[in-house]
Each structure stands twice: as C-alpha cells, then as structure tokens.
Write a sequence for this structure.
C-alpha cells in the first residue's frame, strides 16, 4: 500500500511539473513606433507659353516649357512713336507650389536705362499679377494675397495724354535679390500629390506693359528675377 | 490514505490546466526600411524577442524622390488556440491642416504569410481582405496620390485594436512555444508615398496583439 501511494505521488508530481511550462503566460503584444517628417519645399516654374502683344519688331526670344525652370527672354521691340499700339503687353504664366507659407518676390537687376529726362525708365514699365487660380483639387489659395498695388493689370492701366498711370512699375522693385514681395500665402499652396502633379499648382500670370510714347531714342534692358521664399 | 486521495485529486485537476490557451507574437527578425533616404530603423528586437521596433521614415515630402518609403516588420506568431491578430494606433500625432500627412496617408498590409515548419498550421488562417494588399505597391493616380487598401486610419485607437488576421484553429498544434517549427511567419508592411504634404513631423505607435479568439 505504501508503495502504491509513493507511485501515485511520483506520477502526480511529474504530471504537475510537466504542466508548469504551459502555464507560463506567452508574449501577446508588441509595439512599433512610427515617426517621420516633411520638410519645406518651394517650387516656382514656367506656367507655359509666354506671349507678347502690341509689339512692333519684338518677340519672346527664349522661354521654357511648362513646369520647367523659368528662363524667358522678351524683346519689347519698338516702343516709341513708331509703334501705334496702345500697349505692348507681355504675359508670363507661372506655376507655384509650396508645402509651407510662401512669398513670391521680384527684383530688377542688370538694369540699363537712359539717364535723360525723356528716356524710357523703369517707371515706364508697368507690372502686375493676374489670373490667380488653382489648377486642381490639391491646390489651395485660401490664404493667398497679392500685394494690393500689384493686383492691377498694367496692360489696362489708365492712360491720359498718352501717358499711363501704372499701379506699380519696375521702379517699385528692389534691386537686390530676392526683392520686393509681390504676393504671399500664410499656408501651403500644394496640399498633397507629387510636386510635378497638375493638381496642386497655383497659377498666376506676371504681366509687364509699356505704353509706346515719344521716349528719347535708345535702348533699354533689365533682368527681372522672381524668387519664392518661405515664408 | 489521505495522501492517496490528494494524489488522485491532483491528477483530476491537472488536465484542466495543463493545456492552457496561449498566444505569442514576437519579432520575426530584422526590420527593413527602404525608399527613405533620411529614415532609419532606430530600434528593434531580435528574432523571437518581444517586438519593440521604432522606425523613423525620415523625409516623406517632395524632397524624397522615392515612389514609396516602405517599412517591413517580420513577425512570428504562435497560438495553441484560435487567435486573432489585432493592431491599434495610439499616441498618434499628426498635423491638422488639409495638406498635413494623416493616418490615412500611411498604408498598411500583411504579406508573406507562411508556416515556419511542420508544426505550424495555416489551414484555418485568413488575413482580413483589406489588409492583404501590399501597401508598398499600391496604385497611384496621375497626381502621385496612392490608393491604399487599408491605412492606419482603418485601425482602432483602442487596444487590442482592429482584427487584421484570424485563425479559427491553432496555428501551433504542438512543440515548444520557442520552437522554430511551429511559428507562423508574417510581414507587416507600412508605406508612405512621398508627396507635397504640409511641412511638419508626425508620430504614432502601433500596438500588435495576438488574442484568443
């Protein structure tokens, strides 16, 4: 009998011990921490074909394709009395994208204008931004403002006695890059999508205008540099 | 005589506790991040150790030219009962603006389901359909915006979370719970398609739980 009891004890102990590992609670959870960031990116490109109207002997001599780096060259041609147009009007479409608040600034450099009282000056070239719009559902202009003085169309400026009154001219722009703020946004223009997407770009056209007049004969030239900055 | 009764009682009780219902989810090995030039897996655990990975996707804005930043976390699963794999998103920190990267911009999917050996059984296992697609190969529209089958926005914010895979039977019918032969292998994938999201950081924690059922 004692031997039987001892056997039962042994069997019981073995059974109990063999069960112990199964009672240990297994690993039932784990974690993955996820993080990342989005850096500020700005993009200003050509918005397509630039045009020149009302010119005599002028033309757009170089330009880049839509969404390519902006590198346009325009020759206004004859802007003296030999041109009978009311305006010589240049229009440069622009594409703007940014994922932060941004400003578009303009600066006039390499300016070469005559010094005489009758010479065509920077103040004789009107400038303005027109046609602000979104290109698609992923663009947002709700926080965008064109600086008031640059909202007028220089190609429709009032003219009295053959002399226009532009709201703003190249003379209002800084001569150091990045220059004078033309428009700004407190929020992003592009909400998502590729930075090459047609759906998240903001469209705006930069216009320059000269009213042909009896300027002193001569030539003029300048470079207008557009820069997008944050903010 | 009293000892004999005690022994009999033990034998009677032990069968009811000897095969406890257990589940186990652990790291399945090295986590991998691709398409993320400035990202890195900053912490992870060894194979079969407690899952505790930390991944920084790095830059996922327009400055990242990759089609997808893709994270893969191998998992080992074991269960001697029916089980469900659940995932919850907690400690989420995302921007509020319409252009900010959201939970819905992070695709999630389970891939490469396989038995680790002869003692693993997948015959009753099903990945929930929407989580069966590879987020790192999600289709994109013309604007570069992906259409994920499931995203972090599809997951519950309370643990144990949303069921992403389930088994109506045991996936580990026998062998030690540390055996290579009875584990189920699975890759959890996360994907972000770099886009013109509004600048800013984001963070979240995924908690993965294997429950019964």
């Amino acid at each position: 009998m004692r031997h039987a009891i001892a056997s039962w004890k042994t069997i019981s102990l073995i059974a109990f011990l063999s069960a112990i590992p199964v009672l240990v609670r297994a690993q039932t959870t784990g974690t993955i921490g996820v993080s990342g960031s989005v850096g500020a990116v700005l993009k200003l490109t050509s918005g397509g074909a630039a045009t020149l109207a009302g010119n005599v002997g002028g033309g757009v001599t170089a330009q880049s394709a839509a969404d390519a780096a902006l590198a346009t060259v325009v020759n206004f041609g004859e802007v003296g009395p030999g041109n009978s147009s009311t305006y010589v009007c240049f229009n440069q479409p622009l594409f703007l994208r940014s994922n932060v608040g941004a400003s578009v600034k303009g600066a006039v450099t390499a300016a070469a204008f005559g010094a005489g009282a009758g010479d065509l000056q920077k103040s004789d070239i009107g400038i303005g931004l027109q046609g602000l719009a979104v290109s698609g559902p992923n663009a947002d202009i709700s926080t965008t403002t064109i600086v008031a003085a640059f909202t007028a169309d220089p190609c429709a400026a009032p003219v009295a006695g053959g002399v226009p009154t532009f709201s703003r001219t190249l003379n209002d722009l800084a001569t150091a890059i990045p220059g004078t703020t033309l428009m700004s946004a407190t929020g992003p223009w592009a909400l998502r999508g590729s930075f090459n997407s047609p759906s998240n770009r903001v469209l705006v056209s930069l216009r320059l205008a000269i009213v042909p007049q009896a300027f002193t004969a001569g030539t003029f030239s300048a470079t207008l540099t557009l820069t997008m900055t944050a903010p | 005589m009293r000892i004999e009764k005690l022994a009999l009682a033990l034998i009677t009780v032990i069968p009811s506790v000897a095969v406890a219902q257990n589940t186990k989810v652990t790291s399945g090995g090295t986590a991998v991040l691709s398409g993320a030039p400035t990202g890195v897996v900053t912490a992870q655990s060894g194979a079969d150790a407690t899952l505790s990975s930390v991944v920084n996707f790095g830059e996922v804005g327009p400055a990242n030219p990759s089609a997808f930043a893709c994270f893969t976390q191998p998992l080992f699963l074991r269960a001697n009962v029916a089980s469900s794999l659940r995932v919850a998103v907690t400690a989420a920190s995302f921007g509020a603006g319409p252009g900010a990267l959201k939970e819905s911009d992070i695709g999630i999917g389970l891939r490469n389901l396989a038995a680790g050996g002869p003692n693993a059984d997948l015959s009753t296992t099903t990945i929930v359909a929407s989580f069966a697609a590879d987020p790192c190969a999600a289709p994109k529209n013309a604007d570069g915006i992906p259409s994920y089958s499931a995203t972090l926005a599809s997951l519950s914010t309370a643990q144990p979370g949303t069921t992403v895979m389930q088994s109506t039977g045991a996936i580990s019918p026998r062998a030690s719970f540390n055996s290579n032969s009875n584990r189920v292998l699975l890759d959890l994938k996360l994907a972000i398609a770099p886009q013109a999201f509004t600048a800013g950081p984001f963070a979240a924690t995924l908690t993965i739980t294997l429950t019964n059922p």
